[in-house]
Amino acid sequence: MSAPSRTVRRAQAGTTESPWVRWTLIGLALAFMLLFLVLPLAAVATEALRKGLNAYIEALKEPDAWSAIRLTLITAAIAVPMNLVFGVAAAWAIAKFEFRGKAFLTTLVDLPFAVSPVVAGLIYVLVFGAQGWFGPWLAAHDIKIIFAVPGIVLATVFVTFPFIARELIPLMQAQGTEEEQAAIVLGATGWQTFWRVTLPNIKWGLLYGVILCNARAMGEFGAVSVVSGHIRGQTNTMPLHVEVLYNEYQSVAAFAVASLLAILALVTLVIKSVIEWRHEREMKAIAELPPERPQPAALA
Amino acid sequence: MSGAISSALPSAAAPLARAGNTGVSRRVLPGFHITLGFSILYLSLIVLIPLSALVFKTFTLSWDQFWVAVTAPRVMASYRLTFGASLIAALVNLVFGLLVAWVLVRYKFPGKRIVDALVDLPFALPTAVAGISLTALLAGNGWIGQFLEPWGIKLAFTPAGIVIALIFIGLPFVVRTVQPVLEDTEKELEEAATSLGATRLQTFTRVILPSITPALLTGFAMAFARAIGEYGSVIFIAGNMPMISEITPLIIIGKLEQYDYAGATAVALVMLVISFLLLLVINGLQAWQRRRAGASS
Protein backbone atom coordinates (compact mmCIF):
# COMPACT_ATOMS: atom_id res chain seq x y z
CA MET A 1 0.00 0.00 0.00
CA SER A 2 2.38 2.69 1.18
CA ALA A 3 5.42 0.61 0.25
CA PRO A 4 6.85 2.94 -2.41
CA SER A 5 7.34 5.70 0.16
CA ARG A 6 10.30 3.77 1.54
CA THR A 7 12.31 4.05 -1.64
CA VAL A 8 11.95 7.79 -1.82
CA ARG A 9 12.78 8.62 1.76
CA ARG A 10 15.82 10.64 0.73
CA ALA A 11 13.56 13.03 -1.14
CA GLN A 12 11.28 13.60 1.82
CA ALA A 13 12.95 16.80 2.91
CA GLY A 14 10.69 18.73 0.54
CA THR A 15 7.55 16.94 1.64
CA THR A 16 7.39 17.65 5.33
CA GLU A 17 6.93 20.65 7.55
CA SER A 18 9.41 22.60 9.62
CA PRO A 19 9.80 21.23 13.16
CA TRP A 20 7.86 23.99 14.84
CA VAL A 21 4.90 23.60 12.49
CA ARG A 22 5.06 19.88 13.09
CA TRP A 23 5.08 20.18 16.87
CA THR A 24 2.36 22.85 16.85
CA LEU A 25 0.10 20.51 14.87
CA ILE A 26 0.93 17.56 17.12
CA GLY A 27 0.28 19.74 20.17
CA LEU A 28 -3.07 20.94 18.83
CA ALA A 29 -4.19 17.42 17.96
CA LEU A 30 -3.15 16.08 21.35
CA ALA A 31 -4.84 18.96 23.17
CA PHE A 32 -8.05 18.25 21.28
CA MET A 33 -7.84 14.54 22.13
CA LEU A 34 -7.05 15.30 25.76
CA LEU A 35 -9.99 17.65 26.08
CA PHE A 36 -12.56 15.48 24.36
CA LEU A 37 -11.43 11.94 25.09
CA VAL A 38 -9.09 11.71 28.07
CA LEU A 39 -10.81 14.18 30.38
CA PRO A 40 -14.26 12.52 30.14
CA LEU A 41 -12.67 9.16 30.98
CA ALA A 42 -10.80 10.66 33.91
CA ALA A 43 -13.99 12.36 35.07
CA VAL A 44 -15.81 9.02 35.21
CA ALA A 45 -13.08 7.55 37.41
CA THR A 46 -12.84 10.50 39.81
CA GLU A 47 -16.61 10.97 40.14
CA ALA A 48 -17.04 7.26 40.85
CA LEU A 49 -14.37 7.35 43.57
CA ARG A 50 -15.37 10.75 44.97
CA LYS A 51 -16.53 9.26 48.27
CA GLY A 52 -13.83 6.64 48.46
CA LEU A 53 -13.40 3.05 47.43
CA ASN A 54 -15.92 1.70 49.94
CA ALA A 55 -18.76 3.84 48.65
CA TYR A 56 -17.82 2.75 45.14
CA ILE A 57 -17.97 -0.93 46.02
CA GLU A 58 -21.18 -0.48 48.01
CA ALA A 59 -22.80 1.18 44.98
CA LEU A 60 -21.92 -1.80 42.83
CA LYS A 61 -23.22 -4.29 45.37
CA GLU A 62 -26.71 -2.86 45.24
CA PRO A 63 -29.30 -5.42 44.01
CA ASP A 64 -30.66 -3.10 41.30
CA ALA A 65 -27.14 -2.58 39.97
CA TRP A 66 -26.67 -6.34 39.87
CA SER A 67 -29.89 -6.95 38.02
CA ALA A 68 -28.91 -4.24 35.53
CA ILE A 69 -25.55 -5.92 34.98
CA ARG A 70 -27.26 -9.29 34.57
CA LEU A 71 -29.78 -7.93 32.05
CA THR A 72 -27.03 -6.23 30.05
CA LEU A 73 -25.05 -9.48 29.88
CA ILE A 74 -28.13 -11.50 28.89
CA THR A 75 -29.03 -8.98 26.19
CA ALA A 76 -25.56 -9.03 24.68
CA ALA A 77 -25.39 -12.82 24.97
CA ILE A 78 -28.49 -13.11 22.76
CA ALA A 79 -28.02 -10.16 20.41
CA VAL A 80 -24.36 -10.72 19.50
CA PRO A 81 -24.70 -14.41 18.45
CA MET A 82 -27.82 -13.57 16.41
CA ASN A 83 -25.97 -10.88 14.49
CA LEU A 84 -22.93 -13.13 14.25
CA VAL A 85 -24.90 -15.82 12.42
CA PHE A 86 -26.48 -13.19 10.20
CA GLY A 87 -23.14 -11.48 9.56
CA VAL A 88 -21.46 -14.67 8.42
CA ALA A 89 -24.42 -15.76 6.27
CA ALA A 90 -24.81 -12.34 4.65
CA ALA A 91 -21.08 -12.02 4.03
CA TRP A 92 -20.96 -15.49 2.47
CA ALA A 93 -23.80 -14.68 0.08
CA ILE A 94 -22.62 -11.17 -0.75
CA ALA A 95 -18.86 -11.73 -0.92
CA LYS A 96 -18.70 -15.13 -2.59
CA PHE A 97 -21.47 -14.88 -5.18
CA GLU A 98 -22.72 -12.57 -7.90
CA PHE A 99 -26.42 -11.81 -7.99
CA ARG A 100 -28.75 -9.03 -8.99
CA GLY A 101 -29.55 -6.46 -6.35
CA LYS A 102 -26.35 -7.13 -4.42
CA ALA A 103 -25.42 -3.47 -4.05
CA PHE A 104 -28.95 -2.73 -2.86
CA LEU A 105 -28.81 -5.53 -0.30
CA THR A 106 -25.46 -4.22 0.96
CA THR A 107 -27.00 -0.79 1.43
CA LEU A 108 -29.94 -2.26 3.33
CA VAL A 109 -27.53 -4.03 5.68
CA ASP A 110 -26.11 -0.59 6.53
CA LEU A 111 -29.52 0.93 7.12
CA PRO A 112 -29.68 0.48 10.92
CA PHE A 113 -26.52 2.62 11.25
CA ALA A 114 -28.40 5.51 9.70
CA VAL A 115 -31.54 5.22 11.80
CA SER A 116 -31.72 7.20 15.03
CA PRO A 117 -31.72 4.87 18.06
CA VAL A 118 -34.94 6.47 19.26
CA VAL A 119 -36.63 5.65 15.95
CA ALA A 120 -35.26 2.11 16.22
CA GLY A 121 -36.99 1.70 19.57
CA LEU A 122 -40.17 3.31 18.32
CA ILE A 123 -40.65 0.89 15.42
CA TYR A 124 -40.77 -2.07 17.82
CA VAL A 125 -43.32 -0.25 19.94
CA LEU A 126 -45.41 0.16 16.79
CA VAL A 127 -45.17 -3.56 16.02
CA PHE A 128 -45.39 -5.16 19.46
CA GLY A 129 -46.70 -2.39 21.76
CA ALA A 130 -50.17 -2.34 23.31
CA GLN A 131 -51.54 -0.35 20.35
CA GLY A 132 -49.26 -1.98 17.80
CA TRP A 133 -49.87 -4.58 15.10
CA PHE A 134 -49.49 -7.60 17.37
CA GLY A 135 -50.40 -5.79 20.60
CA PRO A 136 -53.92 -7.22 21.09
CA TRP A 137 -52.83 -10.74 20.12
CA LEU A 138 -49.83 -10.61 22.48
CA ALA A 139 -51.99 -9.26 25.30
CA ALA A 140 -54.53 -12.05 24.75
CA HIS A 141 -51.78 -14.65 25.02
CA ASP A 142 -50.12 -12.88 27.94
CA ILE A 143 -46.83 -12.39 26.13
CA LYS A 144 -44.89 -9.24 26.96
CA ILE A 145 -42.36 -7.93 24.45
CA ILE A 146 -42.42 -4.16 24.94
CA PHE A 147 -41.45 -3.02 28.45
CA ALA A 148 -39.90 -6.47 28.89
CA VAL A 149 -36.68 -8.29 28.08
CA PRO A 150 -37.61 -9.47 24.52
CA GLY A 151 -38.15 -5.86 23.41
CA ILE A 152 -34.80 -4.83 24.85
CA VAL A 153 -33.11 -7.69 23.00
CA LEU A 154 -34.88 -6.83 19.73
CA ALA A 155 -33.94 -3.14 19.93
CA THR A 156 -30.35 -4.12 20.68
CA VAL A 157 -30.28 -6.55 17.74
CA PHE A 158 -31.50 -3.73 15.49
CA VAL A 159 -28.86 -1.17 16.48
CA THR A 160 -26.01 -3.70 16.32
CA PHE A 161 -27.34 -5.35 13.17
CA PRO A 162 -24.65 -4.27 10.64
CA PHE A 163 -21.50 -4.52 12.79
CA ILE A 164 -20.30 -8.06 12.00
CA ALA A 165 -21.60 -8.20 8.41
CA ARG A 166 -19.90 -4.83 7.70
CA GLU A 167 -16.57 -6.18 8.92
CA LEU A 168 -16.78 -9.47 7.05
CA ILE A 169 -18.12 -8.42 3.64
CA PRO A 170 -15.07 -6.39 2.46
CA LEU A 171 -12.69 -8.88 4.07
CA MET A 172 -14.23 -11.91 2.35
CA GLN A 173 -14.51 -10.04 -0.94
CA ALA A 174 -10.81 -9.22 -0.83
CA GLN A 175 -9.98 -12.86 -0.16
CA GLY A 176 -11.88 -14.09 -3.22
CA THR A 177 -13.13 -17.64 -3.68
CA GLU A 178 -10.11 -19.56 -4.99
CA GLU A 179 -9.25 -21.30 -1.73
CA GLU A 180 -12.83 -22.40 -1.11
CA GLN A 181 -13.18 -23.61 -4.70
CA ALA A 182 -10.01 -25.67 -4.34
CA ALA A 183 -11.35 -27.28 -1.16
CA ILE A 184 -14.67 -28.13 -2.80
CA VAL A 185 -13.03 -29.53 -5.93
CA LEU A 186 -10.80 -31.69 -3.73
CA GLY A 187 -13.91 -33.19 -2.16
CA ALA A 188 -14.58 -31.18 1.00
CA THR A 189 -18.19 -30.61 2.00
CA GLY A 190 -19.55 -27.10 2.32
CA TRP A 191 -19.28 -27.16 6.12
CA GLN A 192 -15.74 -28.52 6.04
CA THR A 193 -14.77 -25.80 3.60
CA PHE A 194 -16.27 -23.15 5.84
CA TRP A 195 -14.72 -24.40 9.08
CA ARG A 196 -11.29 -25.32 7.72
CA VAL A 197 -10.74 -22.74 4.96
CA THR A 198 -12.98 -19.71 5.32
CA LEU A 199 -13.14 -19.40 9.10
CA PRO A 200 -9.35 -19.41 9.68
CA ASN A 201 -9.07 -16.68 7.04
CA ILE A 202 -11.68 -14.42 8.58
CA LYS A 203 -11.17 -15.13 12.27
CA TRP A 204 -9.58 -11.77 13.12
CA GLY A 205 -12.13 -9.77 11.20
CA LEU A 206 -14.84 -11.83 12.85
CA LEU A 207 -13.47 -11.20 16.34
CA TYR A 208 -13.12 -7.51 15.52
CA GLY A 209 -16.76 -7.30 14.48
CA VAL A 210 -17.87 -9.27 17.53
CA ILE A 211 -16.16 -7.03 20.07
CA LEU A 212 -17.46 -3.84 18.45
CA CYS A 213 -20.94 -5.36 18.23
CA ASN A 214 -20.70 -6.40 21.87
CA ALA A 215 -19.58 -2.95 23.03
CA ARG A 216 -22.53 -1.33 21.31
CA ALA A 217 -24.94 -4.03 22.51
CA MET A 218 -23.94 -3.50 26.13
CA GLY A 219 -23.87 0.27 25.85
CA GLU A 220 -26.97 1.01 23.79
CA PHE A 221 -29.13 3.66 25.41
CA GLY A 222 -31.64 5.40 23.13
CA ALA A 223 -33.31 2.41 21.47
CA VAL A 224 -33.41 0.39 24.67
CA SER A 225 -34.73 3.37 26.59
CA VAL A 226 -37.83 3.53 24.38
CA VAL A 227 -38.77 -0.14 24.75
CA SER A 228 -37.64 -0.80 28.32
CA GLY A 229 -40.28 0.92 30.44
CA HIS A 230 -37.59 1.62 33.06
CA ILE A 231 -38.80 -0.89 35.62
CA ARG A 232 -36.15 -0.85 38.33
CA GLY A 233 -34.54 -4.21 38.95
CA GLN A 234 -36.36 -5.73 35.97
CA THR A 235 -35.97 -3.92 32.66
CA ASN A 236 -33.10 -1.54 33.36
CA THR A 237 -29.89 -2.31 31.53
CA MET A 238 -26.65 -0.78 32.82
CA PRO A 239 -26.86 2.42 30.74
CA LEU A 240 -30.50 2.89 31.77
CA HIS A 241 -29.60 2.26 35.40
CA VAL A 242 -26.92 4.95 35.09
CA GLU A 243 -29.61 7.36 33.95
CA VAL A 244 -31.98 6.46 36.79
CA LEU A 245 -29.28 6.91 39.42
CA TYR A 246 -28.05 10.14 37.83
CA ASN A 247 -31.54 11.64 37.76
CA GLU A 248 -31.95 10.70 41.43
CA TYR A 249 -28.78 12.68 42.19
CA GLN A 250 -26.98 9.51 43.28
CA SER A 251 -23.89 10.71 41.49
CA VAL A 252 -21.38 8.28 42.98
CA ALA A 253 -23.59 5.28 42.26
CA ALA A 254 -24.30 6.49 38.72
CA PHE A 255 -20.62 6.97 37.97
CA ALA A 256 -19.76 3.65 39.65
CA VAL A 257 -21.98 1.77 37.20
CA ALA A 258 -20.74 4.05 34.41
CA SER A 259 -17.16 3.16 35.32
CA LEU A 260 -17.89 -0.51 34.58
CA LEU A 261 -19.10 0.52 31.14
CA ALA A 262 -16.01 2.70 30.67
CA ILE A 263 -13.82 -0.29 31.57
CA LEU A 264 -15.73 -2.32 29.00
CA ALA A 265 -14.97 0.39 26.43
CA LEU A 266 -11.26 0.39 27.29
CA VAL A 267 -11.04 -3.40 27.12
CA THR A 268 -12.77 -3.23 23.75
CA LEU A 269 -10.22 -0.70 22.49
CA VAL A 270 -7.31 -2.81 23.73
CA ILE A 271 -8.57 -5.99 22.03
CA LYS A 272 -9.31 -4.01 18.87
CA SER A 273 -5.82 -2.50 18.80
CA VAL A 274 -4.17 -5.87 19.41
CA ILE A 275 -6.11 -7.34 16.47
CA GLU A 276 -5.09 -4.41 14.27
CA TRP A 277 -1.43 -4.65 15.21
CA ARG A 278 -1.47 -8.39 14.60
CA HIS A 279 -3.07 -7.86 11.23
CA GLU A 280 -0.50 -5.19 10.36
CA ARG A 281 2.33 -7.56 11.31
CA GLU A 282 0.86 -10.32 9.16
CA MET A 283 0.55 -7.93 6.23
CA LYS A 284 4.15 -6.88 6.67
CA ALA A 285 5.28 -10.51 6.89
CA ILE A 286 3.42 -11.32 3.67
CA ALA A 287 4.91 -8.25 1.95
CA GLU A 288 8.39 -9.35 2.94
CA LEU A 289 7.99 -12.91 1.64
CA PRO A 290 10.23 -13.83 -1.31
CA PRO A 291 8.46 -13.14 -4.60
CA GLU A 292 8.00 -16.81 -5.55
CA ARG A 293 4.67 -16.94 -3.72
CA PRO A 294 2.67 -19.73 -5.39
CA GLN A 295 -0.89 -19.33 -6.59
CA PRO A 296 -2.72 -21.74 -4.29
CA ALA A 297 -5.81 -22.53 -6.33
CA ALA A 298 -4.31 -22.56 -9.80
CA LEU A 299 -3.05 -26.16 -9.59
CA ALA A 300 -6.46 -27.60 -8.77
CA MET B 1 -4.20 1.69 9.85
CA SER B 2 -5.50 -1.35 8.06
CA GLY B 3 -7.30 -1.84 4.82
CA ALA B 4 -9.05 -5.16 5.16
CA ILE B 5 -9.97 -4.79 8.80
CA SER B 6 -11.59 -1.42 8.75
CA SER B 7 -13.38 0.31 11.57
CA ALA B 8 -17.04 0.16 12.35
CA LEU B 9 -17.72 2.71 9.67
CA PRO B 10 -19.80 1.65 6.74
CA SER B 11 -16.99 1.18 4.29
CA ALA B 12 -16.26 0.59 0.64
CA ALA B 13 -17.45 -2.86 -0.27
CA ALA B 14 -18.61 -3.55 -3.77
CA PRO B 15 -15.78 -3.17 -6.28
CA LEU B 16 -13.45 -6.06 -5.46
CA ALA B 17 -15.84 -8.95 -5.90
CA ARG B 18 -17.03 -7.79 -9.26
CA ALA B 19 -13.54 -8.15 -10.67
CA GLY B 20 -12.91 -11.39 -8.78
CA ASN B 21 -15.33 -14.22 -9.17
CA THR B 22 -16.96 -14.23 -12.55
CA GLY B 23 -17.25 -17.02 -15.07
CA VAL B 24 -18.14 -20.70 -14.87
CA SER B 25 -16.80 -21.41 -11.40
CA ARG B 26 -19.25 -19.14 -9.66
CA ARG B 27 -21.67 -21.83 -8.50
CA VAL B 28 -19.03 -24.33 -7.40
CA LEU B 29 -19.37 -23.06 -3.84
CA PRO B 30 -22.41 -24.33 -1.94
CA GLY B 31 -24.72 -22.44 0.36
CA PHE B 32 -25.72 -19.53 -1.86
CA HIS B 33 -29.48 -19.98 -1.63
CA ILE B 34 -29.59 -20.76 2.06
CA THR B 35 -27.31 -17.91 3.16
CA LEU B 36 -29.00 -15.39 0.89
CA GLY B 37 -32.45 -16.61 1.92
CA PHE B 38 -31.60 -16.45 5.59
CA SER B 39 -30.04 -13.00 5.23
CA ILE B 40 -33.08 -11.58 3.49
CA LEU B 41 -35.47 -13.22 5.98
CA TYR B 42 -33.53 -11.89 8.98
CA LEU B 43 -33.16 -8.46 7.40
CA SER B 44 -36.91 -8.36 6.78
CA LEU B 45 -37.89 -9.49 10.25
CA ILE B 46 -35.50 -7.27 12.19
CA VAL B 47 -35.25 -4.18 9.99
CA LEU B 48 -37.60 -3.87 7.03
CA ILE B 49 -40.95 -4.98 8.47
CA PRO B 50 -40.59 -2.96 11.70
CA LEU B 51 -39.49 0.09 9.67
CA SER B 52 -42.50 -0.34 7.40
CA ALA B 53 -44.68 -0.11 10.53
CA LEU B 54 -43.53 3.49 10.76
CA VAL B 55 -44.82 4.24 7.29
CA PHE B 56 -48.13 2.41 7.79
CA LYS B 57 -48.73 4.08 11.13
CA THR B 58 -48.18 7.49 9.55
CA PHE B 59 -50.85 6.64 6.94
CA THR B 60 -53.43 6.57 9.74
CA LEU B 61 -53.00 10.35 9.89
CA SER B 62 -54.56 12.67 7.37
CA TRP B 63 -52.16 14.91 5.48
CA ASP B 64 -53.22 17.90 7.57
CA GLN B 65 -52.73 16.07 10.83
CA PHE B 66 -49.33 14.91 9.63
CA TRP B 67 -48.33 18.40 8.57
CA VAL B 68 -49.43 19.93 11.87
CA ALA B 69 -47.54 17.26 13.82
CA VAL B 70 -44.26 17.73 11.97
CA THR B 71 -44.35 21.54 11.72
CA ALA B 72 -45.53 22.51 15.22
CA PRO B 73 -43.39 25.39 16.53
CA ARG B 74 -41.79 23.23 19.22
CA VAL B 75 -40.92 20.57 16.64
CA MET B 76 -39.55 23.17 14.21
CA ALA B 77 -37.36 24.57 16.98
CA SER B 78 -36.05 21.06 17.62
CA TYR B 79 -35.16 20.61 13.92
CA ARG B 80 -33.26 23.89 13.93
CA LEU B 81 -31.38 22.90 17.06
CA THR B 82 -30.67 19.33 15.96
CA PHE B 83 -29.48 20.30 12.48
CA GLY B 84 -27.61 23.41 13.61
CA ALA B 85 -25.78 21.68 16.44
CA SER B 86 -25.03 18.63 14.27
CA LEU B 87 -23.68 20.85 11.50
CA ILE B 88 -21.40 22.81 13.82
CA ALA B 89 -20.18 19.62 15.50
CA ALA B 90 -19.51 17.96 12.13
CA LEU B 91 -17.60 21.04 10.93
CA VAL B 92 -15.44 21.05 14.06
CA ASN B 93 -14.80 17.35 13.50
CA LEU B 94 -13.94 18.04 9.87
CA VAL B 95 -11.13 20.37 10.91
CA PHE B 96 -9.86 18.52 13.95
CA GLY B 97 -10.46 15.10 12.43
CA LEU B 98 -8.21 16.07 9.52
CA LEU B 99 -5.64 17.44 11.97
CA VAL B 100 -5.63 14.24 14.06
CA ALA B 101 -5.49 12.01 10.96
CA TRP B 102 -2.64 14.11 9.53
CA VAL B 103 -0.64 13.99 12.74
CA LEU B 104 -1.18 10.23 13.10
CA VAL B 105 -0.17 9.46 9.50
CA ARG B 106 2.65 11.91 8.88
CA TYR B 107 4.44 12.48 12.18
CA LYS B 108 6.20 10.37 14.77
CA PHE B 109 5.72 11.18 18.43
CA PRO B 110 5.75 9.26 21.71
CA GLY B 111 2.48 7.55 22.61
CA LYS B 112 1.24 7.61 19.03
CA ARG B 113 -0.22 4.11 19.16
CA ILE B 114 -2.21 4.90 22.29
CA VAL B 115 -3.53 8.09 20.71
CA ASP B 116 -4.47 6.12 17.61
CA ALA B 117 -6.33 3.53 19.66
CA LEU B 118 -8.06 6.21 21.72
CA VAL B 119 -9.62 7.79 18.63
CA ASP B 120 -12.22 5.01 18.64
CA LEU B 121 -13.26 5.66 22.24
CA PRO B 122 -16.56 7.33 21.21
CA PHE B 123 -17.48 4.16 19.31
CA ALA B 124 -16.79 2.00 22.35
CA LEU B 125 -17.95 4.19 25.23
CA PRO B 126 -21.72 3.97 25.87
CA THR B 127 -23.37 7.27 25.04
CA ALA B 128 -24.98 7.61 28.46
CA VAL B 129 -21.55 7.44 30.07
CA ALA B 130 -20.25 10.08 27.69
CA GLY B 131 -23.28 12.21 28.50
CA ILE B 132 -22.90 12.20 32.27
CA SER B 133 -19.13 12.60 32.24
CA LEU B 134 -19.20 15.55 29.81
CA THR B 135 -21.90 17.11 31.98
CA ALA B 136 -19.75 16.60 35.08
CA LEU B 137 -16.82 18.28 33.30
CA LEU B 138 -18.75 21.28 32.03
CA ALA B 139 -21.09 21.93 34.97
CA GLY B 140 -20.36 25.03 37.05
CA ASN B 141 -18.29 23.05 39.56
CA GLY B 142 -16.68 20.73 37.00
CA TRP B 143 -13.03 20.61 35.95
CA ILE B 144 -13.65 22.73 32.87
CA GLY B 145 -16.83 24.50 33.90
CA GLN B 146 -15.26 26.15 36.95
CA PHE B 147 -12.84 28.07 34.73
CA LEU B 148 -15.58 29.20 32.36
CA GLU B 149 -18.18 30.16 34.95
CA PRO B 150 -16.36 33.35 36.10
CA TRP B 151 -16.31 34.53 32.49
CA GLY B 152 -20.05 34.04 32.23
CA ILE B 153 -19.67 31.14 29.83
CA LYS B 154 -22.15 28.34 30.41
CA LEU B 155 -21.79 25.14 28.39
CA ALA B 156 -23.70 22.53 30.36
CA PHE B 157 -27.49 22.66 29.98
CA THR B 158 -27.27 24.94 26.93
CA PRO B 159 -27.22 24.33 23.15
CA ALA B 160 -23.42 24.76 23.32
CA GLY B 161 -23.28 21.66 25.52
CA ILE B 162 -25.19 19.74 22.86
CA VAL B 163 -22.56 20.71 20.28
CA ILE B 164 -19.81 19.44 22.58
CA ALA B 165 -21.52 16.10 23.11
CA LEU B 166 -21.98 15.77 19.33
CA ILE B 167 -18.33 16.61 18.69
CA PHE B 168 -17.42 13.75 21.03
CA ILE B 169 -19.81 11.33 19.31
CA GLY B 170 -18.65 12.18 15.78
CA LEU B 171 -14.93 12.46 16.46
CA PRO B 172 -13.79 9.11 15.01
CA PHE B 173 -15.62 9.38 11.69
CA VAL B 174 -13.47 11.94 9.87
CA VAL B 175 -10.24 10.55 11.36
CA ARG B 176 -11.04 6.99 10.30
CA THR B 177 -12.16 7.86 6.78
CA VAL B 178 -9.26 10.23 6.03
CA GLN B 179 -6.48 8.20 7.68
CA PRO B 180 -6.27 5.32 5.16
CA VAL B 181 -6.51 7.68 2.19
CA LEU B 182 -3.76 9.88 3.58
CA GLU B 183 -1.60 6.79 4.06
CA ASP B 184 -2.04 5.91 0.40
CA THR B 185 -1.33 9.35 -1.07
CA GLU B 186 1.71 9.41 -3.27
CA LYS B 187 4.63 11.37 -1.95
CA GLU B 188 5.95 11.69 -5.52
CA LEU B 189 3.23 14.20 -6.31
CA GLU B 190 4.21 16.33 -3.34
CA GLU B 191 7.87 16.12 -4.33
CA ALA B 192 6.98 17.17 -7.84
CA ALA B 193 5.00 20.12 -6.52
CA THR B 194 7.88 21.15 -4.26
CA SER B 195 10.47 20.84 -6.99
CA LEU B 196 8.27 22.97 -9.25
CA GLY B 197 8.48 25.71 -6.66
CA ALA B 198 5.28 25.30 -4.66
CA THR B 199 5.39 26.25 -1.01
CA ARG B 200 4.40 23.61 1.51
CA LEU B 201 1.03 25.31 2.03
CA GLN B 202 0.39 25.40 -1.72
CA THR B 203 1.29 21.73 -1.97
CA PHE B 204 -1.17 20.98 0.79
CA THR B 205 -4.09 22.95 -0.62
CA ARG B 206 -3.51 22.11 -4.30
CA VAL B 207 -2.16 18.55 -4.19
CA ILE B 208 -2.99 16.83 -0.91
CA LEU B 209 -6.36 18.36 -0.11
CA PRO B 210 -8.00 17.52 -3.46
CA SER B 211 -6.96 13.88 -3.12
CA ILE B 212 -8.51 13.52 0.32
CA THR B 213 -11.61 15.64 -0.31
CA PRO B 214 -13.97 12.69 -0.98
CA ALA B 215 -12.84 10.97 2.22
CA LEU B 216 -13.16 14.20 4.18
CA LEU B 217 -16.70 14.76 2.94
CA THR B 218 -17.63 11.14 3.62
CA GLY B 219 -16.43 11.43 7.20
CA PHE B 220 -18.20 14.76 7.57
CA ALA B 221 -21.49 13.32 6.28
CA MET B 222 -21.19 10.30 8.59
CA ALA B 223 -20.49 12.45 11.63
CA PHE B 224 -23.42 14.70 10.67
CA ALA B 225 -25.79 11.74 10.17
CA ARG B 226 -24.76 10.20 13.46
CA ALA B 227 -25.19 13.50 15.28
CA ILE B 228 -28.73 14.04 14.00
CA GLY B 229 -29.94 10.77 15.47
CA GLU B 230 -27.92 10.96 18.68
CA TYR B 231 -29.87 10.79 21.92
CA GLY B 232 -28.00 9.22 24.83
CA SER B 233 -25.09 11.61 25.20
CA VAL B 234 -27.14 14.73 24.48
CA ILE B 235 -30.06 14.48 26.89
CA PHE B 236 -27.84 14.65 29.98
CA ILE B 237 -26.03 17.79 28.92
CA ALA B 238 -28.80 19.57 27.03
CA GLY B 239 -31.06 20.77 29.81
CA ASN B 240 -33.94 19.76 27.51
CA MET B 241 -35.91 22.98 27.61
CA PRO B 242 -38.69 23.18 25.00
CA MET B 243 -37.93 25.60 22.15
CA ILE B 244 -34.35 26.09 23.39
CA SER B 245 -32.46 22.89 24.03
CA GLU B 246 -34.82 20.08 23.07
CA ILE B 247 -33.52 17.83 20.27
CA THR B 248 -35.81 16.05 17.80
CA PRO B 249 -35.28 12.51 19.18
CA LEU B 250 -36.38 13.85 22.55
CA ILE B 251 -39.56 15.22 20.95
CA ILE B 252 -40.33 11.67 19.81
CA ILE B 253 -39.76 10.31 23.31
CA GLY B 254 -41.92 13.07 24.80
CA LYS B 255 -44.80 12.28 22.44
CA LEU B 256 -44.48 8.57 23.23
CA GLU B 257 -44.66 9.25 26.95
CA GLN B 258 -47.91 11.12 26.34
CA TYR B 259 -49.20 8.13 24.31
CA ASP B 260 -49.25 10.31 21.17
CA TYR B 261 -48.08 7.42 18.99
CA ALA B 262 -49.22 8.97 15.73
CA GLY B 263 -47.43 12.25 16.48
CA ALA B 264 -44.25 10.44 17.51
CA THR B 265 -44.42 8.37 14.35
CA ALA B 266 -44.87 11.39 12.10
CA VAL B 267 -41.77 13.12 13.49
CA ALA B 268 -39.88 9.82 13.37
CA LEU B 269 -40.79 9.44 9.70
CA VAL B 270 -39.30 12.86 8.96
CA MET B 271 -36.10 11.78 10.69
CA LEU B 272 -36.09 8.46 8.85
CA VAL B 273 -36.44 10.14 5.46
CA ILE B 274 -33.55 12.46 6.31
CA SER B 275 -31.48 9.45 7.40
CA PHE B 276 -32.24 7.75 4.09
CA LEU B 277 -31.16 10.80 2.13
CA LEU B 278 -27.93 11.09 4.12
CA LEU B 279 -27.25 7.39 3.56
CA LEU B 280 -27.63 7.96 -0.19
CA VAL B 281 -25.28 10.96 -0.03
CA ILE B 282 -22.71 8.91 1.91
CA ASN B 283 -22.98 6.05 -0.61
CA GLY B 284 -22.46 8.54 -3.43
CA LEU B 285 -19.43 10.04 -1.72
CA GLN B 286 -17.94 6.59 -1.18
CA ALA B 287 -18.43 5.72 -4.83
CA TRP B 288 -16.63 8.97 -5.73
CA GLN B 289 -13.81 8.08 -3.37
CA ARG B 290 -13.49 4.60 -4.91
CA ARG B 291 -13.32 6.08 -8.39
CA ARG B 292 -10.61 8.46 -7.16
CA ALA B 293 -8.67 5.60 -5.61
CA GLY B 294 -9.11 3.54 -8.79
CA ALA B 295 -7.93 6.38 -11.01
CA SER B 296 -4.78 7.09 -9.02
CA SER B 297 -3.52 3.51 -8.72
Describe it for me?
By secondary structure, chain A is mainly α. Chain A is built from 14 helices and no strands. Chain A is globular. Chain B is mainly alpha-helical. In chain B, helix 7 (127-138) packs parallel to helix 12, helix 9 packs across helix 11 (200-229) and helix 9 (159-184) runs antiparallel to helix 12 (232-238). At the A-B interface, helix 2, helix 4, helix 5, helix 6 and helix 8 of A face helix 1, helix 2, helix 4, helix 5 and helix 6 of B.
Share of helix of chain B, binned: over 70%
Rg of chain A is 24 Å
What fraction strand of chain A? Answer: under 5%
Largest inter-chain contact set: A-B, 129 and 114 residues
Write the element-wise H/E pattern of chain B from the N-terminal end onward.
HHHHHHHHHHHHHH
Considering the chains and any ligands shown, give keywords for the structure:
heterodimer, A: 300 residues, mainly alpha, 0% strand, disordered N terminus, B: 297 residues, 14 helices, globular
How do the helices and strands line up, and which of them pair or pack?
The complex is a heterodimer of chains A (300) and B (297).
Chain A: H1 4-7, H2 19-48, H3 52-61, H4 63-96, H5 102-114, H6 117-128, H7 135-140, H8 149-159, H9 163-175, H10 178-185, H11 190-219, H12 222-228, H13 238-247, H14 251-287
Helix pairs in contact in A: 2-14, 3-14, 4-8, 4-9, 4-11, 4-13, 6-8, 6-12, 8-12, 9-11, 10-11, 11-14, 13-14
Chain B: H1 15-20, H2 32-59, H3 63-71, H4 73-106, H5 112-118, H6 121-124, H7 127-138, H8 145-148, H9 159-184, H10 187-195, H11 200-229, H12 232-238, H13 248-257, H14 261-296
Helix pairs in contact in B: 2-14, 4-9, 4-11, 7-9, 7-12, 9-11, 9-12, 10-11, 11-14, 13-14
